[in-house]
Amino acid sequence: MLDTNNYMAWRDGNFAVIDEGRKTEHELRQEQLPTSKIAKAFTHIQAPRLFQLARPAGTPDRLALAVSSDYPEAVELVTRLYDQFGFDTVDHSPLHESWRSGPGTPTWQHHVYGQSREQLVANLQQAKRGSE
Fold first, then answer.
1. Entry's Gene3D superfamilies (predicted)?
2. Residue 131 counted as domain residue
3. Which of 27, 34, 124, 132 is 20–30 Å from 112 (CA)?
């Protein structure tokens, strides 16, 4: 199951377990749907940009999108979807690390014009807890 949601306390209300960094919203979703294989995907790109920024595989200016999951097969599914949409994939699993591409992080802040694989990896690594 693709989880395309981003936790935003101003909209969703506060959840201490998320605010304190004990779990991510995607881990909670996995707990809510224990028979599903949750993958956080498509959370740092706006829908119109999927078409505007897409590039064929192997194109030098092809951009990347992040995915995280506790299930490798879910990551593989998202990787195929991203490729069909015209994007490379950066896997930043498990779900416990999914906060790294959430609102307020470097990945989120650079979503408008997209990010190369290298830029996305760097932005995921630069994320600091509490900025999301």
1. NAD(P)-binding Rossmann-like Domain (3.40.50.720)
2. no
3. 27
pLDDT digits (tens, 9 = 90+) for 34-73: 999 999 999 988 888 999 999 999 999 999 999 999 999 9
Q: What is the pTM of this model?
A: 0.91
Cα–Cα distances in Å, from 61 out to 18, 53, 54, 55, 64?
35, 10, 10, 7, 10
- pLDDT of 62-109, one tens digit each? 999 999 999 999 999 999 999 999 999 999 999 999 999 988 899 988
Is residue 132 a part of any domain in this protein?
no
Domain annotation covers residue 75: yes
Domain harbouring 72, CATH code: 3.40.50.720
Q: How far apart are CA 40 and CA 6, in angstroms?
A: 9
